[in-house]
C-alpha cells in the first residue's frame, strides 16, 4: 500500500472484510502495474491515505456472495473497472461513462461509505477500480470480474483488464479505421502498443508508432507498424515525418503520453478532418494549435477505457490473442511483489513495457 500522498509502495498487513452478498473474494495471482496507479498516488488528496492501489488484477475466486451469479469458486478471473450497470450510459453499453464512476472506482470505499480494509482498527482506503489488486486478495463484483479459460496464464492476462483494452478499444470501439485509413500512435508503451496491435489486426492501411525509446519502437515494428524515432527530432520534424509517411497527414491519431507538446504534435500530424484521441492522465490542460484545428476541421476527443465494456472486450481480445492476432505477451516483465518499487523505477525509465507483479 501507499501510506502517504506521493509515497512509495510498501508491503503491509491489513485486514480485508469477508465478501458481502454482492462481492467476490479473489486470490490474486498477478497484477499489472499501470501508470494510473502511479499517477493517482500523487493526485488523490492527502486524507485518502493509506491507500491500496492496483486495477489490473487476475486471480482465482475463493468465495462468492449469495447475490452473485455467473461466477463460481475456483474460476479464474481477470479484474477490470466497476460500473453500476443501471444508469443511462451503462444501459447504452458505455459503462466507462457510468454515472457512478467516481464513487465506484476512485473514492477509496464502497458505495455506502465503508472501507473494505482496516489496519490496527483504522480504515485503509481501497476499492480502487473496484478491486485494489496490488494485494494477495481483493474484493471485486460481478460487473468487474471476467471469467476466463482455466488454462489461461494469468500473468499474461492481467494487463487485459485495463491497459490493453484501453489501447485496443480506442481503435476498435472509437475510431473504427479500415484499410484506406492511416493511424499514428504517439507513445508506444503498453496502451499504445495495444492500439498498434488492434489496428494491424483490423488491416489498417498505414500504422505508425512514434516514441523516444528504441525497444518500444522495435516492439511496434514487430507488431507491424512503421517506427518513427522522435529522439533528436524537433516537433516540426516529427510532424513532417508523419505527414510524409501518411501521404499528407494521418486519418487518426492516438496519444498515450499525456505530454502537452506531444498532444499538439499529434493534432498537427492529422489530415484534414482527422481525429485525435487522447488517453493519458496527468496534466490539467493541453495547448492545441487553434488555426490548424479550425482550418482543418479536426477533432480532438478523449476516451475512457477505449469505450470498452470489460465483460465484452476482455474476452474479445483474449480470443484475438488465441488466434495470433493480438500478440502482446512479449511486453510482460514479471516481478515478485516485494520488488514493486523496482518495477516502478524500470517502467518510468523505459527499461520495461509492462511490469506484472506476481505472488
UniProtKB/TrEMBL annotation:
Provide the coiled-coil residue spans: none
Q: Which GO terms describe its molecular function?
A: aryl-alcohol dehydrogenase (NAD+) activity; zinc ion binding
Question: Which keywords does this Swiss-Prot/TrEMBL entry list?
Answer: Metal-binding, Oxidoreductase, Zinc
Which residues are in the Enoyl reductase (ER) domain? Answer: 6-357
One Pfam family recorded for the sequence? ADH_zinc_N
Identify the domain of life. Bacteria
EC code(s) of this entry: 1.1.1.90
Would the keyword Heme turn up in this protein's UniProt record?
Answer: no
List the cofactors: Zn(2+)
The record's family statement is: Belongs to the zinc-containing alcohol dehydrogenase family.
What name has this protein been given in UniProt?
Answer: Aryl-alcohol dehydrogenase
This chain's source organism reads Nocardioides dokdonensis FR1436
- Its gene? xylB
Amino acid at each position: 500500500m501507499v501510506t502517504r500522498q506521493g509515497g512509495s509502495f510498501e508491503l503491509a498487513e491489513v485486514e480485508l472484510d469477508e465478501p458481502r452478498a454482492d462481492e467476490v473474494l479473489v486470490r490474486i495471482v498477478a497484477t499489472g502495474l499501470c501508470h494510473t496507479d502511479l499517477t493517482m498516488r500523487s493526485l488523490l488528496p492527502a486524507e485518502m491515505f493509506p491507500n491500496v492501489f492496483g486495477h489490473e488484477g487476475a486471480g482465482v475466486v475463493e468465495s462468492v456472495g449469495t447475490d452473485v451469479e455467473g461466477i463460481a469458486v475456483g474460476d479464474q478471473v481477470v479484474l477490470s473497472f466497476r460500473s453500476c450497470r443501471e444508469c443511462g450510459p451503462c444501459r447504452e453499453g458505455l459503462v466507462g461513462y457510468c454515472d457512478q464512476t467516481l464513487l465506484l472506482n476512485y473514492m477509496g470505499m464502497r458505495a455506502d461509505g465503508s472501507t473494505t480494509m482496516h489496519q490496527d482498527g483504522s480504515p485503509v482506503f481501497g476499492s480502487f477500480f473496484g478491486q485494489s489488486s496490488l494485494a494477495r486478495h481483493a474484493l471485486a463484483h460481478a460487473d468487474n470480474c471476467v471469467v476466463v479459460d482455466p488454462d489461461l496464464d494469468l500473468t499474461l492476462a492481467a494487463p487485459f483488464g485495463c491497459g490493453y483494452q484501453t489501447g485496443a478499444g480506442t481503435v476498435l470501439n472509437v475510431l473504427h479505421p479500415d484499410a484506406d485509413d492511416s493511424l499514428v500512435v504517439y507513445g508506444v508503451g503498453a496502451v499504445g502498443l495495444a492500439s498498434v496491435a488492434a489496428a494491424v489486426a483490423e488491416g489498417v492501411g498505414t500504422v505508425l508508432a512514434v516514441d523516444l525509446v528504441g525497444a518500444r519502437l522495435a516492439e511496434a515494428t514487430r507488431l507491424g507498424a512503421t517506427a518513427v524515432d522522435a529522439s533528436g527530432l524537433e516537433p516540426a520534424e516529427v510532424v513532417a515525418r508523419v505527414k510524409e509517411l501518411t501521404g499528407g497527414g494521418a486519418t487518426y491519431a492516438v496519444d498515450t503520453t499525456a505530454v502537452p507538446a506531444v498532444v499538439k504534435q499529434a493534432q498537427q500530424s492529422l489530415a484534414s478532418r482527422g481525429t485525435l484521441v487522447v488517453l493519458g492522465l496527468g496534466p490539467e490542460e493541453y495547448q492545441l494549435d487553434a488555426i490548424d484545428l479550425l482550418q482543418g476541421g479536426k477533432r480532438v476527443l478523449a476516451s475512457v477505457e477505449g469505450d470498452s465494456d470489460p465483460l465484452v472486450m476482455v474476452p474479445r481480445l483474449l480470443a484475438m490473442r488465441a488466434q495470433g492476432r493480438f500478440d502482446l505477451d512479449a511486453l510482460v516483465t514479471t516481478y515478485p511483489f516485494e520488488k514493486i518499487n523496482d518495477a516502478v523505477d524500470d517502467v518510468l525509465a523505459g527499461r520495461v513495457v509492462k511490469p506484472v507483479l506476481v505472488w
